[in-house]
Design a protein that fits this description.
By secondary structure, the chain is α/β, with parallel strands linked by helices. The chain contains seven helices and ten strands. A hairpin with a 5-residue loop joins β1 and β2.
């Protein structure tokens, strides 16, 4: 028998209300799964509901229809099994060092009760993201890329079942962005963490994801779900797939 998907998004509907009271449909009948050890990317024009979808999945917003399952059970409230990594560089507590930032959620949530074990666990995650030697640095002493590495370490220290990523590397330079894309993918693979990535970058989706959900808009609905068979292929094959996805997005009228 096949394993249940880690996350199953079922027929999600979402409306907002405009100033004149008219409803604005943001998501329409959105359904897809994220399997164990899988990274799924969601791409689409601005305004197609990508971030709203993430907020519904982690129970920071409610759906008007449909539901989300985690390991077969309905998600009704925020959980440490589904955590979000944001784009904002200032996710870290500024008065705590990198080490203290990673230890804090382990102790605050009771995920690891032993102080010594929490510290050992934190150091391992800091090493995973390449910040050994910077564990006693404060956020203001770090570059943007280093802050995001620390944020990745802190989020993954809790060993969530699912990592949600909302444009986490969009504000970084290209070299740092490429490094963190591959690093995050490698750490998720190492610890068996499934992930859902929202991105405007088709190239990022192709580098990181096993499958790609292409969102249409007006209202936001799924246009296609495509297997990414070129994630580790030579550059020429990846560029061909990028071009195919860009043509698909270009066929939509961009009013975002």
């Amino acid at each position: 028998m096949n394993e249940l998907p880690v996350i199953s998004v079922q027929n999600i509907e979402k409306h907002f209300h405009m100033n004149d009271g008219r409803p604005l449909e943001v998501l329409h009948d959105v359904s897809f799964d994220v399997d164990q050890n899988e990274i799924v990317a969601v791409i689409g024009h601005s305004g197609c509901g990508k971030t709203t979808l993430l907020r519904i999945i982690c129970s920071l917003a409610s759906a008007d229809g449909g539901f989300v399952l985690l390991d077969g059970s309905k998600c009704t409230k925020p959980s440490k099994d589904i955590l979000m990594l944001f784009q904002d560089f200032n996710q870290l507590l500024p008065w705590k060092t990198v080490f203290a930032n990673v230890v804090h959620p382990l102790r605050a949530t009771g995920a690891i009760k032993s102080r010594g074990e929490a510290q050992r666990h934190a150091m391992k995650r800091i090493s995973d993201v390449g910040l050994t030697g910077f564990e006693h640095s404060y956020p203001h002493q770090l570059s943007g890329g280093m802050k995001q590495r620390a944020a990745v370490a802190r989020t993954l220290a809790l060993q969530p079942r699912v990592l949600l990523m909302d444009e986490p590397f969009a504000s970084l330079d290209n070299i740092t962005r490429s490094t963190l894309q591959l690093l995050t993918r490698r750490v998720c693979e190492k610890y068996g963490i499934s992930a859902l990535l929202v991105t405007h970058s088709v190239e990022e989706a192709v580098v990181m994801a096993d499958r790609i959900v292409v969102m249409d808009k007006n209202p936001g609905r799924i246009k296609a779900i495509m297997a990414n068979t070129v994630k580790d292929a030579p550059m020429e094959q990846r560029l061909q797939f990028v071009a195919e996805l860009l043509r698909m997005l270009a066929s939509q009228e961009d009013v975002g």
